[in-house]
Amino acid sequence: MRKFDLNVEEILENWEVSHAVREIIANALDEQKLSESEEIAIFENKNTWYIRDFGRGLRYQHLTQKENEEKLQHDGLIGRFGVGLKDALATLYRRNVSVEILSPHGTFTLSMEAKEGFPDITTLHVLVEAPDKSATRGTEYVLKGVSKADIEAAKSFFLKFSNEPLLEKTEFGEVYSCKKGKALIFVNGVKVAEEENFLFSYNITSLTAKMKKALNRERTHVGRTAYADRVKSILLSCSGEKVIRELVADIELTEKGLNHDETSWIDVAKHAIGHLNKMDKVIFVTPKQGIERGDLVANAKMDGYRVVFINESIAEKIRGSLDPSGNPIRDLSQYQVEYNESFQYKFVDPKI
Fold first, then answer.
1. Cα separation of 200 and 184, whole Å?
2. How wide is the angle at C-alpha 297 spanned by C-alphas 242 and 288, nearest 5°?
């Protein structure tokens, strides 16, 4: 048996067991992607929880804190610097959870031991022993003292286990239906924030430099300023019917003050209106125009146009604009032009 010093005493007092389990799941998901192996397994047996991937297996070298070159060269991964697993092990030990890690490269357990050369200082060590004969592939974490609630709370950090319906995928990230109250913001599949008044949930897969700086050690409570621009980029890249129609339906709630935050962004609202103009036979009208020019609106309805009500600020922005097909966005003034041009005159000789 060898002792690997993690150089950890007591850290992350605010971390619960679920935060530690989150890091273990994150490592398993990264390994699944890197090794292109099968789905990870999370299951319980006789009051013991097991988290297993089927990749290449944990080695003691992975317990050091440094930049992981392999992970840095791959997009879409969760971890980067090797600190997550150390934090997880320290938290589990602090919370009196028994941990055993089985790998083809060794069996790992935890113990507080005197630091080599400094007998007055004890730090958390990983005890490295010969591998169990049954550990032929991947890494298996055996956790005793973890509740089902801890596991479910840990899984809630991941898009993979959220069952959110995917609406559209873009080069910057993905848009998901928000059916459970709060919208969720994920980065590479890990939840970093919740939004009270967002229409959709998002998984950001292309990170800006600002976002990379904002992602803290715990990957939670990231401020909106860090990801708002990326959410806008995602929406401005959407053209599918589901997202566009939901956005426009939300825009119609603006006058009542019931719309969500995304449709308060004028560029997003204009984008959605342009795409709906391309998709459907619609006319965009302000409530004031609906009252003052009710005759013209009635003509539009008789001509088969569906009326979509928008506020004055959006109406100003779309005036004279083109949709993605290059056709004018049909507001009331554009309809007036088309209506006037629709008349065909046949001149009669007055002598007849």
1. 8
2. 90
Chain segment 324-333, per-residue pLDDT in tens: 999 999 999 9
Domain boundaries, the chain: 2-157, 160-236, 241-341
Q: Is the pLDDT of residue 345 over 80?
A: no
Q: Are 67 and 81 in contact (CB under 8 A)?
A: yes
Q: Which has the closest alpha carbon to 228: 214, 217, 240, 246? A: 214
Parallel, antiparallel or unpaired: strands 166-169 and 48-53 = unpaired
Q: What is the mean pLDDT of residues 230-243?
A: 97
Q: Tell me the two tokens of residue 122.
A: 């004890």
3-state secondary structure 115-180: ECCEEEEEEEEEEEECCCCCCCCCEEEEEECCCHHHHHHHHCCEHHHCCCCEEEECCCEEEEECCC
Question: CA–CA separation, 247 vs 242, rounded Å?
Answer: 9
Report the alpha-carbon distance of residue 303 to residue 287 in Å, rounded. 20
Q: Dmax of the chain from CA atoms?
A: 121
Give pLDDT tens digits for 159-204.
999 888 999 999 999 999 987 778 999 999 999 999 999 999 999 9
**Pick from 200, 314, 330, 225: which is nearest to 266 by CA?**
314
Provide φ and ψ at 192, rounded to 5°: -120, -15
Of 270, 279, 267, nearest to 325 by C-alpha is 279
Q: Which amino acid is at 217?
A: R
Q: 23-82, pLDDT tens digit by residue?
A: 999 999 999 999 999 999 999 999 999 999 999 999 988 888 655 555 555 655 665 545
Residues 6+ apart with CB under 8 A from 110: 89, 92, 93, 99, 124, 125, 126, 127
Higher pLDDT, 220 or 67: 220
- Tokens at 134, concatenated: 């049954």
